[in-house]
Amino acid sequence: MVDDPHLDIRLRGRLASLLEEAVHLGKIVEQLFTLSRLDSGEGNADWTRFDLAELVRTTAEQMSLLAEDKKISIACDTGMPVFIQGDRSRIKQVIVNLLDNAIKYTPGQGEVHVRVRGIDDRAVLEVQDNGIGIPPDSLPYVFERFYRVDPARTADSESAGLGLSIVKAICTAHGAEVEASSVPSVGSRFLVKLPLHHN
Predict the structure, then answer these.
(1) Which of 129, 134, 123 lies closest to 91, judged by CA?
(2) CA-CA distances (angstroms) from residue 48 to 76, 86, 141?
(3) pLDDT, tens digit, for every residue of 164-176?
(4) Contact 96, 112 (CB under 8 A)
(5) Residue 198's pLDDT band (boundaries 50, 70, 90)?
(6) Which residue, 125, 99, 124, is CA-closest to 112?
(7) Would you say 2 and 16 are in contact if contact means Cβ atoms under 8 Å apart?
(8) What is the DSSP string of the chain?
(9) I need a labelling partner for 153 at 20 to 30 A (CA). Which of 27, 43, 83, 85 fits?
(10) pLDDT, tens only, 124-146
(11) What residues contact 101, with CB distance under 8 A and at least 6 apart?
(12) Of 126, 116, 128, whose CA–CA distance to 79 is shortest?
């Protein structure tokens, strides 16, 4: 109906707004389903051994078009293979959510760095940007469900505040740790530490 050229232009505009809102609500519902499945422990049957460095590299390449739209560069330092065991699609979701946040909250001409390395018995994923940063009083709450930093500062008025809580839930399901540090107007850094999987 939105594409029907015979409809009144004002009606088409209202329908377009309704469609946009329906898509937005659909995304929120899917995110809530994801959290519900993670809370119930679903998905362990899909665990496999895979190279985190390779997954980060290919995911960063896929996200590069989104970054290019804002003239943001993504530097990927993956080095040697780093093997972990887990649900590959869920870990990819962690990478996507962290990169999406970094791109979203970094001004044009900015930089996002993503690194993977093995340290002792941990595979460490690091996503760092030089964006707007997170206020110190908000930092302890960024992984809570529906929490949003001051809406007046947000780069996405449609954000439901679920992206980082999904990251946290996936990490918990994988026995991983996730932490955030940030300096306002300087940038943010997220670290995910997963158990290494040896042969």
Answers:
(1) 123
(2) 24, 5, 31
(3) 998 999 999 899 9
(4) no
(5) confident
(6) 99
(7) yes
(8) -TT-TTS-HHHHHHHHHHHHHHHHHHHHHHHHHHHHHHHTTTTGGG-EEEEHHHHHHHHHHHHHHHHHHTT-EEEEE--S--EEEE-HHHHHHHHHHHHHHHHHTS-TT-EEEEEEEEETTEEEEEEEE-SS---TTTGGGTTSTT--S-TTT-S-TT--S-HHHHHHHHHHHTT-EEEEEEETTTEEEEEEEEEB---
(9) 27
(10) 999 999 999 999 999 999 999 87
(11) 163, 164, 188, 190
(12) 116
Query: In degrees, to the nearest 5, what angle opens at C-alpha 59 toward C-alphas 56 and 62?
Result: 150
Q: At a CB cut-off of 8 Å and minimum separation 6, what does 41 contact?
A: 173
CA distance 52 to 194: 10
Dihedral of CA atoms 188, 62, 78, 72 in degrees, nearest 10, equals -40
Q: Which two tokens stand for residue 49?
A: 């051994």
Determine how many CB atoms are found less than 10 A away from the CB of residue 105: 22
The CB-based long-range contact list for 175-178 (8 Å cut-off, 24+ gap) reads 178/143
Side chain identity, residue 36: S
